[in-house]
Amino acid sequence: MPLQFTPVTENFVAHVTGIDLDDPVRASDREAIVEACDRYGVLVFPHQHLSKEALVRFGASFGEVDTTLQKKLLNHIQNRLGTDEVTDISNVDAQGNVAAADHWQTITTIGNRFWHSDGSYKDLPIRYSILNAVTAVGYGGETQYADLRAAYDSLDAVTQELIADKIGIFWSHNTRDWLHIPDSEAERGAFPKVRWPLVRTHPGSGRKVLWCDSKCWGIEGLSPPEARALVHELIEHIGQRERVYSHKWRPGDLVMADNRAVVHRGRRFIHAERREMRRVETNDDVHSLGYA
Ligand code: OGA
Ligand code: MN
Fold first, then answer.
1. CB 137 within 8 A of CB 273
2. How far apart are CA 56 and CA 217, in angstroms?
3. Helix H segments across the chain?
4. Which of 134, 136, 142, 231 is most deeply buried (CB count within 10 A of its CB)?
5. pLDDT band for position 69 (cuts 50, 70, 90)
6. What is the per-residue pLDDT across 135-145, written as a single tens digit (0 to 9) for each?
7. Nearest C-alpha neighbor of 190 from the set 72, 66, 71, 44
8. Domains and their CATH numbers in the chain
9. Residue 219 alpha carbon to ligand 2 centre in Å
């Protein structure tokens, strides 16, 4: 069966069949996947039960695989997966059991429940995030994706004008502060705040995107309260139902998302259920406007 893309909506999310990601990706398929990512932002590949090696190889065919975050996390946790190219997105402890509610692994993934683009707080952020489900939970646990291009297009003209030249300040610990996670000063300073335009253009599609997520800590030129209120308003706009795709996981699902065009968040689930995913990410090649 040839590679086939079945859109969920015209320009957002497609299901991809006719490819076995256990095998190296052919050059022509790679090009088609990149084009589809440019158009849809999110690609869902069902029935891909991949080894860690196959998952990394798939990611590496789209760019340099990021290891920096995982290296940082490894200072804290078990290296359960034994590699820094694959991040352990799970509620599982080093012994392979479902972790306690107050376990570091459990707590740290709670940050994923807020709308974000992976690595938006870094000078060199993430282009593609690839999640592969090993197990799936019964209740909740969906990953939701929201379309930042449609979010920009649907802003009213006054708001488009207001944010046209605004620069956001993004910080890795913004959400961890909301969550009252008591990190050390060294941890809080590990990723210095970076500056990004709130409106960016996606290089693959030429479409404008509303570049705002829960890591946005402030906006230059606005008072802190006005900035924070506007950030909340923009995130609320981004998360409107008509621009959101909710992915209910089945084991073996693989979802590839273009962080330059979409944000995502994980939904609440029951801690006692085992939720186990593996993630590979590739680095983008567009830098921020610099450190704040
Ligand atoms: C991530 C993430 C959400 C989820 O892995 O980057 O945000 O549903 N995950 O686990
Ligand atoms: Mn994420």
1. yes
2. 32
3. 27-40, 52-60, 68-74, 104-110, 148-153, 157-163, 174-178, 185-188, 224-238
4. 231
5. confident
6. 999 999 999 99
7. 72
8. 4-283 (3.60.130.10)
9. 22
Asked if residue 111 has its Cβ within 6 Å of ligand 1, the reply is no
Pocket of ligand 1 contains residue 143 by CB under 6 Å: yes
Q: Is the CB of 86 under 6 A from ligand 1?
A: no
C-alpha 253 to ligand 2 mean position (Å):
16
Nearest-10 Cα torsion for 276, 282, 288, 292: 40
Ligand 1 lined by 282 (C-beta under 6 Å):
no
Burial (CB count within 10 angstroms: exposed 0-12, middle 13-18, buried 19+), residue 161: exposed
Residue 144 CA, ligand 1 centroid: distance in Å:
9
Q: For residue 69, give both structure tokens.
A: 């975050």
pLDDT digits (tens, 9 = 90+) for 185-232: 988 998 999 999 999 999 999 999 999 999 999 999 999 999 999 999
Structure tokens at 200: 């960016």
| Angle, CA 265 vertex, CA 189 and CA 100 arms, to 5° | 75
Ligand 1 and 266: CB distance under 6 A? yes
- Quick check: 244 pLDDT over 60? yes
Amino acid at 137: V
66 lines ligand 1 (CB under 6 A): no
Nearest CA to ligand 1 atom 10: 266
Tokens at residue 135, please?
């197990």
Ligand 1 atom with the smallest distance to the CA of 144 is 8
Tokens of 263: 């944000």
The pLDDT of residue 26: 97
- Rounded Cα gap, residues 211 and 167, in angstroms: 10
Report the 10 Å Cβ neighbour count for 122.
21
Q: What is the pLDDT of residue 167?
A: 99
Q: Atom 8 of ligand 1 has which residue's CA nearest to it?
A: 266
